[in-house]
UniProtKB/TrEMBL annotation:
Pfam families: IML1 (PF12257), NHL (PF01436). Keywords: Membrane, Repeat, Transmembrane, Transmembrane helix. The chain crosses the membrane at residues 367-394, 406-430, 493-512, 545-570. GO terms for molecular function: G protein-coupled receptor activity; zinc ion binding. One of its GO terms (cellular component) is membrane. NHL repeats lie at residues 48-87. It comes from the Eukaryota. This is Vacuolar membrane-associated protein Iml1 N-terminal domain-containing protein.
Amino acid sequence: MNVSSRCEGLFVDINNTLYCSMSQHYQVVARSLNESVMNSNRIAAGTGIKGSASNQLADPLGIFVDVNLDLYVADSHNHRVQLFQSGESNGITVAGRGSRPQTITLLYPSGIILDAEKYLFIVDSGNHRIVGSDLNGFRCLAGCYGGGSQSNQLYNPFSLSFDRYGNMFVTDESNHRIQKFQYYEESCNSPSVIEILYSSAVQSNYSSELNTSSQTYSRDCRKSNYYYQAIRMNVMETGYYALSSNSSMNTFGDIYKDDFNPMNPFENLLSQDYRACSSQDFKFIAYLHTGTKYILVVTTSSPNMTGNFSILTSGPKNITIDPYTQIVTSCFIGQKCQFYKKSIGVILDDILRDEIRPNMALADQTILVKITVALTMIMFVGGLINSVLSLLTFRNKDLRQVGCGMYLLASSITSFLTISMFTVKFWFVVLTQINISTRLSVVRGGCVSIEPLLKLCVYVDAWLNACVAIERAILVFKGINFNKQKSQRIARWIILILPFCGMGSIIHEPIYRELHEIKSETNKVDSDKWCVTHYSSSVQQYNTIILFVHLVAPCIINLCSALFIIFGSAQQRSTAQTRRTLKEHVYNQLEDFVTYHKKKLAKCEAEKMPNENLLETLNLSSSVFERHFIDRAFDCLGQMSLVTIPGVRVFEVEHELAF
């Protein structure tokens, strides 16, 4: 093979093809050694132009070709390892910068080897270490404490190789030496290669026990009642740390970053190189950072096991180890932990699921279920009667001459739909839990549709009531200039558009609602069916905003409208009745408002009416174009008045009425 620059890496594959990595030409070339005639070299990887694209290289160094003729390249200045499958010009990043997901951070990798099980061993030259992969990802094998000249350190290593016994040889370039790292079969009595590196490191020890008073959780989301202890680890110096246990029981350990949630043991779980030496010990190595909160959870390999244990840690510096009490999030699906809730309030599933007895008649259910059934049906009957009476009332065309009447008519319909959907939701939960063999398609359809429809009815009803409040405020503001026809037209459009706006705002609900089947621990035939809503962070923020808009905003509108009516009416009264100040009128309005809502009189007695109401009735009849009559008590005086005037003579009246 003739090349125009030096070869930083050489490799001969199983077909007797020679590969050369030319760092100065940013490519890898190959030539068959079986050819009798010297042919030109072919390009195996790279374009000859320095770059970071998938088909480019930047100072390629070490190379390796596997039995499938796939080419692995240590792409040094791109800080990655590229895989060029046979016949492909575009590479795949398998380690380092740009890998998906990010596997490990590399700095100027210079050598690479692939073993028979397709595990990678990489010379991470800039980080002065050797890293390797296994089923749990990448881990440090040698030089795990930074660059140096100690026996467990490397300084700018360049390449590596293994002998037939698994011993590793590394060219420790800047230390001008070749280092041998001896391989030991992993067992509790003979340490692994990694353990030798930590033998002289700073160690910490922690001892405790698991007993029947310890907290429990579901370690693997299949079985529950694992005793565990959470331990807070304070790291003094960033680096690789080895942790191992010694116990009288079968221990199991995990490290969590930031926090540990026993209801979801896979959240915040830190990947580590887990090594089980025997049935009673765990060993693993993790790269820990200073200033980061780490939680070590010690539990057992099987439920209901207790006993003493001790934890030994070794690393570049001492680790402070203390017991940790975590904030427990309420479980979303009872004793299981695949899903847990972070929402506001509770739902029917939360209240009833653990109380319903499967495959039993309603008469044999718990007292809580029976009470809930009775209350639900009472609410439904009461809501049905209220809705029917409201419909009969607002069918009167005279009451629908303004938008308020139309809004209230529509609100009576949505109120009936709301209580109906709530009842349907209740019976859906009860019946599907009683009859756990319900067809999956039925359960899935209810999961996706019932809850969003119930929300839609609630939201539309809230906005209809808000529209009533807005129109009442406009009526106070405009007085006799209030346009009834315009109010009707606007009301028709709003009633038509409002349901579509509500549906558009919650269209994401059916998309993110999923039905999950979870096998029971005691009965492998039957399974629990859970309707779960799982949002991403951005959709969760949107959902919170929508919840505020549909529930809080109408309440604020009603409150502001009530205050506007009270103060606006008081302002109009103060204009017409100057013997009182605005403050006195406001106080009088508030007093009348509170008194009215406390008594809820079925009829008004004339002797209990305020004198102002009678005077305003006279003003209404005599001066229909005045503004100050509009705050009279409609429930006491009605919307019309008939005044009979006697003949000409002298009458005695009270001084206040003669004002």
